[in-house]
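Q: What does the assembly look like in three dimensions?
Context provided by user:
Components: four
Sequences:
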Amino acid sequence: MTSFDPSTLFRARGCSRQWLGFVRALAEEFAAELPEHELATLMARIGRRFAHRHPIGECVALGEVETAANRIWGEVEWGQCRMEEQAGSVEITHAAPPLAVALTGMDWSDGFLAGVYEGWFQQLGMLAGLAVNAERPPAPDLRRLRLARAV
Amino acid sequence: MTSFDPSTLFRARGCSRQWLGFVRALAEEFAAELPEHELATLMARIGRRFAHRHPIGECVALGEVETAANRIWGEVEWGQCRMEEQAGSVEITHAAPPLAVALTGMDWSDGFLAGVYEGWFQQLGMLAGLAVNAERPPAPDLRRLRLARAV
Amino acid sequence: MTSFDPSTLFRARGCSRQWLGFVRALAEEFAAELPEHELATLMARIGRRFAHRHPIGECVALGEVETAANRIWGEVEWGQCRMEEQAGSVEITHAAPPLAVALTGMDWSDGFLAGVYEGWFQQLGMLAGLAVNAERPPAPDLRRLRLARAV
Amino acid sequence: MTSFDPSTLFRARGCSRQWLGFVRALAEEFAAELPEHELATLMARIGRRFAHRHPIGECVALGEVETAANRIWGEVEWGQCRMEEQAGSVEITHAAPPLAVALTGMDWSDGFLAGVYEGWFQQLGMLAGLAVNAERPPAPDLRRLRLARAV
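A: Here is the predicted structure of the complete assembly.
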């Protein structure tokens, strides 16, 4: 930690130091062994397992999905999400996940969030022919996912 | 938590949720019972006790004091400090302490940091006729203390 | 940390290191300034303020109070409680609060839990002529409170 | 959390809730894809990368290795280790790692600790023809590793 900027210091504390080193070593090992698109796929499988163990519960409207997701994210200090219905897709923005702190610049790690949201939409029966994929993030700590027709 | 700004979300995580409610209730009780200058004095006494339990060790140059202080602050995730020698005083800036997150706007809580630094300078024998006092902070998460001749 | 026993190591981690030093310095200052019965009373006032900021919500049966309390304690990693109706009183046992880790042996710190529970029962309108008081704890990490007719 | 035993409650808090779900989902995915001996090998590769990023520093005697290791483990709240010279081997006991809380019963996860210790002994030049392997743990929260001639 060489910066003296409060935001940078708070951001660094945004990932539990107990697991920071483990997660970085894990990512390094993954990145050394697998090509980038397989990394994202592996992370998505882990994300779907997370969703399975943290079920979203019953939700009808998209606002309820957002609220239920934020209840789960809040409990584990993983930041917050917003979901916005758009033409033919749902745009999901996830702010301040600890994974972004641990693995800054490794965009394939968004696969995890993609897998979690896909798992949740699957539980809700909203996934006929749809998939959740990561898109270019608007900012390092704002990750962007989209539920849309699978290509 | 209603904000969606990553900085705000990271800042909120900058104070352990285990103690946030306790510290706020404590501050509310203090503020209800004591006038502001006594609040700062009480916090300073607590700070000096903290310094006594977390001795700064041997330091000769001011840079060593800064390093030793940051080692202690780093271990407990209390942010970081910088110390700068000025004409007749030492200016201490402390970035991102969790107390600023818990007690935003309660400037009397700077008394704690003032007491800690004063305790450390006392251990180093640097305090003949000097005292550490809080000054107007340059920003909510940048607290300003000054070691100078006691008024 | 000199012990090598896993239980002791886990217990030590049961209080966030960010606030351990602050809380101990605070307790030391309190204990130096106030007699023991006033310490418990001060802690109880802080506890009631905590209850006010963390309302228990609507509960009818005692089991619902226990569940609602454990939801709040769970969110902040303060352990768990059990409530048991007895002749003319409710016995509350609170397991593994971080305050017991921080302030081992300072039984007056139970005043905080007593104040929180009293605040919650007050919110529920269950307090006509009753009070919550701490009793001798069955074990260092099992604190005992009782809702009973105020003496 | 259904237990009311303080030890069980403290143990549960021994793994940061921020990463518990992630680590469990990760382990589930690993265990579904790889046979057990490859799981341990994968964990060991991750462990060696951790050691590389957290160098043990200069140590001559085994007691210094233990102290340096515990400084690193202490900073990240990973419990503590003891190292004991025996005939032709060094026995390492590691108490209270959060991995044991997250992945209780998955003994292959000891591969991580084996890899970390092996990486550290490699940095110290102590590894000619030797390897670190996990052995049957004396207790769920006491993991056992051994530095010995590679088989």
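Follow-up: The radius of gyration of chain A is 15 Å.
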